[in-house]
Amino acid sequence: MKKQKLILIGNGMAGVRTLEELLKLEADLYDISVFGAEPHPNYNRIMLSPVLAGEKQVEEIVLNSREWYAENHITLHTGDPVTAIDRKARQITTASGMSASYDRLLLATGSNPFIIPVPGHDLPGVVGFRDIQDVETMLASARQYKKAVVIGGGLLGLEAANGLKKNGMDVTVVHLMDMLMERQLDKPAATLLKASLEEGGLKFLMEAQTEAILGDQRVTGVRFKDGTEIDTDLVVMAVGIRPNMALADAAGLHCERGIVVNDTLQTFDPRIYAVGECVQHRNNTYGLVAPLFEQAKVCANHLAQLGYGRYQGSVTSTKLKVTGIDLFSAGEFNEAEGDETLVLQDPAQGVYKKLVIRDNRIKGAVMYGDTMDGSWYFQLLREATDISSFRNTILFGQHDLGDAGHGEETRVGMLSDEAEICGCNGVCKGEIVNAITSQGLFTLDEVRAHTKASASCGSCTGMVEALLASTVGEGYAATPSKKAVCGCTSYSHDEVRKAISELGLKSMPELFDKLDWGTPDGCPSCRPALNYYLLAAWPAEYRDDAQSRFINERAHGNIQKDGSYSVVPRMFGGLCSADDLRAIADVADKFEVPEIKVTGGQRIDLFGVKKEQLPAVWKDLSEAGFVSGHAYGKALRTVKTCVGKNWCRFGTQDSTGLGVKLEELTWGSWMPHKFKLAVSGCPRNCAEATIKDLGVVCVDSGYELHIGGNGGIKVRVTDLLCKVESEQEVLEYTGAFIQCYREEARYLERTAPWVERVSLNYVKQRVVEDKVGRKALYERFKLSQQYAQVDPWKARAEGAETHEFTPLSIDRMRAAS
Amino acid sequence: MNDWIPVTKLEEIPRLGARKLQAGELDIALFRTGSDEVFALRDRCPHRGGPLSQGIVHGEAVTCPLHNWKIDLQSGEVQGPDQGCVHSFAVRIEEGVVYLDIASLESAA
Predict the structure, then answer these.
(1) CB-closest option in A520, A527, A814 to B5
(2) Closest Cα of chain B to A445: distance in Å?
(3) In what order do the strands lie in the sheet with A30-35?
(4) Where do the domains of chain B lie, and which CATH numbers do they carry?
(5) In this predicted structure, what is the pLDDT of residue A450?
């Protein structure tokens, strides 16, 4: 079959990104040609400011070299703008007279700087700030002349002014309004910004309306409405951009402020798509790169004929790329009536932070001087997180919530290049910054793939995101709030769970089919999640899929770095008898276990067991009365206890006995992530119950239930859920809490982030206040436990899944044949 | 010269799973895809030596259980930004029996 022809008009970031996304999905669907007006291959437009400031070279900001186009069989025509589209003939014509036909057309014509039509606007020495050509003009002027005027005190204007100043020019910024960056900042932040830029040597003329640009051969000055004039050798117009829709308009496509597209980025002509700054989507136009990349992804999905992506608009944030100035804003940062604001102001340090709050959710943020937590606030904003539980410290930043001891280290901007960011994979700041700039990375996932930073335990994710944000500025494509499960689908975890219960999906092939999965059998990210969701939704009916579990859960042991496994038998409540210890010792002798260790969860770990030995080891343990400790699973792990009132002189309740009962109730349960319990016999809390997923602290009058703690990557102290009076209530509330978590948390989400996401109030409402709901949750938990409490070790010792533990052998086959 | 010897029945390898095959000193991983194709690679990830037979099989790739390197089953090439290659061996299926070309083992030893 002959390939279809795809033409891209506009060789910029949005268009080429769409091609990259398309090639990832369908590499051979189209013959692709690209027409660009500029003489360059695709480069990183947001890096023009650093180029102007002399911090980067033009070659360093190229994103796709000419070789890239060649390798992907894309025909590239540079320096030859398309002048007309004939939609009837499905043909385009270029300035040089070339014509080409298309089956699908992608418009990514970007935007043009808005040039104020005052007299003299077309004189030599008047430029916009849009492309490499403009930057070269400015740099040439800086070498030859002294004075510059930048019209426009917005983001682009200030970056231009800063760059020209760096090149030794005497720069005056002219702005129509009484404050700088009025679209991104509120008044106090704008005042701080202006003062700091003035300190750096920039001059400002505020509330000045340009009337004419003066000069004969070349610009010599600017005159304002009030009659005053200033001398200048260069005028940079940076008052805004306008979507470049002339071509589309002339072709009869529906345009308003931009080329109008629907949620699939299709224009009014179904053969023609449009992405980037030239489009108008749901009445919005976008000039920042993160939304353009979201559009690119969706558009590519439709060009690849998959047809399931939808673009629903973006929330954007802004960061100014002027060295030495930290500034961040996002959302609705000017409060509307009825909104609350939280403000932190420290004029001496030049710090200002404001959060606009509505219904306990962040609606907007402005930060100046200390923008460390910008990406965190932005995430809270996009995810509409209820902040009531940490509202009184939120302005002090995320590290105030508990930072695993990283403290000041999280101030990533101040670190040297050698500073280690990712402790798991040994990745330094310099390596990450280098990868971001040299490989043209924009997302956290890309940085993870290329450097491995934050790809293991994830505790440095915030620092890596901060590095991304500070390196690429507003180009940083923040992780979208609706996160797809993985690359196989555009559905989020919550949507998949909803579909499983509403459509009654009971097997993975059925789910892949009904939800149009992009891959025939998923990937290592989605399959374990889906297996869990199906298991949690249909405990009685779903047949667990061993091949969709990580090896630890498939082999019921923890794989170690040499490929051997560790074995941890369950010790209910941490109690054991001399016979138990003897049985474990016998196993260790018999199988020559190289190392034995007492775990943090009050049990015993046998290390270095070979996979082939596992069923025999389990058989002996099983005969001595042990069951699996599930120390390898996203499952109920341990119930840690202190000794309690039977022995301890401070003990108020039988904490050990209660721990045993809790473990008997909950063992064997599969969870979104691992789940740990503890019971302390008095508020001295020797069992460390307040850093567990659920901790019971016994007091004289009853039992306090604490939830959402974590002692791992990011230490988090539990929140008090409620206090109850009897052991029976402890069991019921615990079962209900676990079931609520099992049914609603996303796979691989521990209780700590889950509670923060859905809010403590929500959990209280479900588990404490709603008595009927609690009982129903508890019943569902007990029902699921009927099927879950089957010891996997015993089953395998008796011959289940033998293929998993028995290697094949060529020599054996030979002997047999 | 090929030297095909039978090593197992297709049904002995779980679909979307793998079996470890011992050939003297050499460990081989036999993979079965969702569409019942079988591939053989050396059971050792080029990154840190992880046992590939313990990974998750998806499409025509396996992901190493230790650090998530993704390896193409056909070529043995490491995919994505990581780089490296695993030795692959010739396999064919005839009437439900999996045959391995032991001549191809020589070059790996």
Answers:
(1) A814
(2) 12
(3) A74-77, A30-35, A4-9, A104-107, A272-274
(4) 4-106 (2.102.10.10)
(5) 85
pLDDT in tens, A585-619: 999 999 999 999 999 999 999 999 999 999 999 99
For residue B107, count other CB atoms closer than 10 A to its CB.
8
Sign of the Cα pseudo-torsion (A741, A745, A749, A752, in order): negative
Note the CATH architecture for domain A126-239: 3-Layer(bba) Sandwich (3.50)
Record: contact A563-B50, CB cut-off 8 A = yes
Whether residue A548 lies within 8 A of chain B, CB to CB, comes out as yes
Architecture, CATH, for domain A552-633: Alpha-Beta Complex (3.90)
β-partners of residue A100 are: A92
Q: Which chain A residue shows the shortest CA-CA distance from B58?
A: A523
Quick one: pLDDT at residue A768? 96
Can you name the residues that pair with B21 across neighbouring β-strands? Answer: A808, B28
Q: Which residue of B has its CA nearest to A562?
A: B50
Contact in structure between A107 and A10 (CB atoms under 8 Å): yes
Instruction: Give the homologous superfamily in CATH for domain A4-112+243-303.
Output: FAD/NAD(P)-binding domain (3.50.50.60)
> So what's the pLDDT on residue A452?
81
Residue type, A375: S
Q: How many contacts (CB atoms, under 8 Å) link A and B?
A: 93
Angle at A572 between CA A657 and CA A646, to 5 degrees: 25
Length of chain A measured in residues: 817
pLDDT band at A474 (very low <50, low <70, confident <90, very high): low
Tell me whether A523 touches chain B (CB under 8 Å): yes
| CATH class entry, domain A650-788 | alpha beta
Angle at B85 between CA B84 and CA B86, to 5 degrees: 140
* Interface residue B23 vs chain A (CB under 8 A): yes
Q: Which residues contact A335 (CB under 8 A, 6 or more apart)?
A: A341, A356, A364
- A808 to B21: CB separation less than 8 angstroms, yes or no: yes
**Are A808 and B100 an interchain contact pair (Cβ–Cβ within 8 Å)?**
no
- The pLDDT value recorded for residue A814 is 65
Is the CB of residue A155 less than 8 Å from the CB of residue A241? no
- Residue A404 reports pLDDT greater than 50: no
Name residues whose C-beta falls within 8 Å of residue A450's C-beta, 6 or more positions apart in sequence: A435, A439, A441, B81
Strand, helix or coil for residue A97: coil
Contact B100 A563 (CB under 8 A): no
pLDDT of A409: 42
pLDDT beyond 80 at A346: yes
Q: Is A412 helix (H, G, I), strand (E, B) or coil?
A: helix
- How far apart CA A131 and CA A475 sit, in angstroms, is 16
